[in-house]
């Protein structure tokens, strides 16, 4: 725990850019690692004031919280930002004084480039993505304020962290090759064991690497790019497609508020891409709109990445921390048990 606090304090300085006098608000539930490590421990270890607000998401109440407490650093999730996007492009600056806000962060799932553009236009602040997981205890990879921001990227590793892309044998891969996101062990906040399951803990390790279960690649400049959980990657007609890249392109369409993408078994192609979407206000479901959205992805991303199937839903299943639950979408689609739903948003 004390080693982890060293990591959490430094993450507060390097990633959250916490400074004396800051008013910090992390919207994550304190029952989750982001809410405890990122929402409580990091700010307290850096001596800044923490805003705590309960209740469900409500756009106007969130903007009012930013204004009322003069929040300077704000940490939330991509789903929350997408919901704010769906409420109107210019509303916050027209209605609320959030001028004290100087730094905005996101974690929990990949941050779509469209959300970053919305942040610049609407909040007049860049939204900085950072990557970590429960097992890492704190931020591992981030878009630092001192580095150029590359929309859609996880950023670069924190100082002292060795991050790499490895193949299924644990061999490091060259730039721009999709593989397993892996970390050199013994960073300060590293998980030490799994309660009563030592064999499961050992499965994280491969050829001297801690393998996260995420699929990603590293570009030639050392920026890392998340593609999805390894189990989520879709194999269609011999091509590997990360659901995140398709979801990111879908939400760029003006009609799409949220998107979740899965692979559906197909006898000819192995899998075909199916997209579940919710629509923004002012749009209605139609075959013509679905076809327009398919063509939008086909022309702006790639033909093999365009969804062959689109289903419109009022809302998509999400965890309490805001992640879209692709496994639930897949279970619904295939008629399989959904498994544990204790983390699903009510």
UniProtKB/TrEMBL annotation:
**Could you tell me which residue ranges the AMP-binding enzyme C-terminal domain spans?**
245-323
One Gene Ontology MF term: ATP binding
**Enzyme Commission code:** 6.2.1.1
Q: Which InterPro entries does the record match to this protein?
A: AMP-bd_C, AMP-bd_C_sf, AMP-dep_synth/lig_dom, ANL_N_sf
Q: Name one Pfam family in it.
A: AMP-binding_C
Q: Which cellular component terms (GO) are annotated to the entry?
A: cytosol
What are the residue boundaries of the AMP-dependent synthetase/ligase domain, all occurrences included?
Answer: 8-184
Q: Which SUPFAM superfamilies does the UniProt entry name for this protein? A: Acetyl-CoA synthetase-like
GO terms (BP aspect): acetyl-CoA biosynthetic process
Q: Does the keyword Zinc apply?
A: no
Q: Which keywords are on file for this protein?
A: Acetylation, ATP-binding, Ligase, Nucleotide-binding
This protein's source sits in the domain of life called Bacteria
| Family of the protein in this entry | Belongs to the ATP-dependent AMP-binding enzyme family.
The protein depicted here goes by the name: acetate--CoA ligase
């Amino acid at each position: 725990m004390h080693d982890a606090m060293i990591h959490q304090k430094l993450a507060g300085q390097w990633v959250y850019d916490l400074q004396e006098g800051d008013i910090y608000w992390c919207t994550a539930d304190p029952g989750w690692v982001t809410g405890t490590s990122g929402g409580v421990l990091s700010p307290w270890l850096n001596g800044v004031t923490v805003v705590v607000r309960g209740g469900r998401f409500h756009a106007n109440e969130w903007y009012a919280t930013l204004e009322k407490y003069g929040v300077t650093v704000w940490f939330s999730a991509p789903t929350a930002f997408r919901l704010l996007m769906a409420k109107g492009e210019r509303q916050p600056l027209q209605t609320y004084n959030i001028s004290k806000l100087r730094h905005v962060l996101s974690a929990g799932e990949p941050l779509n480039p469209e959300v970053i553009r919305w942040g610049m236009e609407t909040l007049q602040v860049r939204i900085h993505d950072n990557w970590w997981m429960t097992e890492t205890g704190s931020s591992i990879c981030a878009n630092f304020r001192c580095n150029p921001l590359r929309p859609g990227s996880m950023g670069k590793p924190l100082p002292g962290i060795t991050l790499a892309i490895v193949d299924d044998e644990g061999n490091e891969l060259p730039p721009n090759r999709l593989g397993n996101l892996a970390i050199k062990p013994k960073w300060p906040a590293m998980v030490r064991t799994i309660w009563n399951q030592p064999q499961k803990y050992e499965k994280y390790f491969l050829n001297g690497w801690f393998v996260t279960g995420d699929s990603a690649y590293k570009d030639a400049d050392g920026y890392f790019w998340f593609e999805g959980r390894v189990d989520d990657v879709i194999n269609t007609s011999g091509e590997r497609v990360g659901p995140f890249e398709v979801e990111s392109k879908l939400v760029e369409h003006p009609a799409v508020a949220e998107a979740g993408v899965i692979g559906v078994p197909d006898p000819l192609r192995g899998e075909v891409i199916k997209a579940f979407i919710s629509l923004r206000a002012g749009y209605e479901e139609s075959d013509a709109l679905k076809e327009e959205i398919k063509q939008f992805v086909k022309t702006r991303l790639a033909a093999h990445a365009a969804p062959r199937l689109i289903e419109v839903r009022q809302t998509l299943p999400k965890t309490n921390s805001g992640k879209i639950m692709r496994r639930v979408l897949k279970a619904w689609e295939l008629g399989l048990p959904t498994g544990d739903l204790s983390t699903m948003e009510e």
